Amino acid sequence: QVQLVQSGGGLVQAGDSLRLSCAASGRTFSSYAMGWFRQAPGKDGELVAALSGSVGNTYYADSVKGRFTISRDNAKNTVYLQMNSLKPEDTAVYYCAAGPSVTRWLRDYPYWGQGTQVTVSS
User: Fold this and answer.
1) Is there a contact between 90 and 74 (Cβ–Cβ < 8 Å)?
2) Is the pLDDT assigned to residue 51 strictly greater than 80?
3) DSSP category for residue 32
4) What tens digit of pLDDT does each residue of 11-48 get?
5) How many helices (H) does the chain have, and how many strands (E)?
């Protein structure tokens, strides 16, 4: 069982940066793929970044590629989403999730954080 607790959201201006954190409980964190999803009002949930349990397998949505970076610190049981050059279009509730492998399907991630609001003003 994995439990995820998020932090790091907030209100920023366009062009600013934020780092989201997702701290996991459980002793099998390093074996899980981690994904960051976001959902804006009136829009479907979107996988923005994911990282496999081992280094080398990553995914970024085209809309964030080059601006966002996903990383993990297994010693701290924490995954991060570094968000640079934020745009108003990035405004959404961001969720971290853990699953057995990198996938774009929400149902493949059995463990979820509580979500955190990111608001980017123009």
Assistant:
1) no
2) yes
3) S
4) 999 999 999 999 998 766 778 899 999 999 899 999 99
5) 0, 11
